[in-house]
User: Which sequence fits this backbone?
């Protein structure tokens, strides 16, 4: 009896091993189905094996600018108020517009990436949809100061029609 149990145990072991290798084996014979990405080797690759980030990925908060270097940020400060971590600082200045009226505009929209928890409250609550997440994920730096970013580009201005 013992010998039968022993032999049965060996066959069971082989069977469970084959079951475990089923997925591995299927990818071995169908390599085009593999979803795992080889990072960082795939950084520069093109085509099927190039580095791919999904649209829903939250890399870092950015300010959208159009081809004329215009953004939609009015400097209202709602993103700053809603950010739970104090990650955003909106610095504004008063300017006189073409009609001679005083108007507020952003001087610097500062984003401290090192403090961001990627909750997206700033992006969702911005009344002008001025902010968005980029797919950038390589944030390693030697100097933490590099994680403090000014989101409005140099020389940029408010898009016409945005109040
Ligand atoms: S990014 Fe949006 S919420 Fe923040 S200050 Fe600019 S307009 Fe206001
Ligand atoms: S994603 Fe969240 S934590 Fe990051 S800046 Fe926006 S509101 Fe603040």
Assistant:
């Amino acid at each position: 009896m013992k010998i039968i149990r022993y032999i049965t145990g060996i066959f069971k072991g082989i069977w469970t091993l084959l079951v475990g290798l089923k997925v591995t084996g299927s990818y071995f014979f169908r390599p085009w189905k593999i979803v795992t990405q080889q990072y960082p080797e795939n950084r520069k690759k093109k085509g099927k094996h190039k580095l791919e980030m999904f649209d829903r990925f939250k890399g870092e908060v950015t300010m959208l600018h159009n081809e004329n270097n215009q953004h939609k940020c009015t400097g209202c400060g709602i993103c700053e108020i809603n950010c739970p971590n104090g990650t955003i600082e909106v610095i504004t200045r008063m300017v006189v517009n073409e009609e001679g009226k005083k108007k507020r505009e952003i001087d610097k929209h500062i984003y401290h990436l090192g403090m961001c928890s990627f909750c997206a409250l700033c992006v969702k609550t911005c009344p002008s949809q001025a902010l968005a997440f980029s797919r950038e994920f390589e944030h390693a730096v030697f100097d933490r100061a590099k994680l403090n970013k000014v989101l409005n580009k140099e020389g940029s201005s408010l898009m016409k029609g945005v109040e």
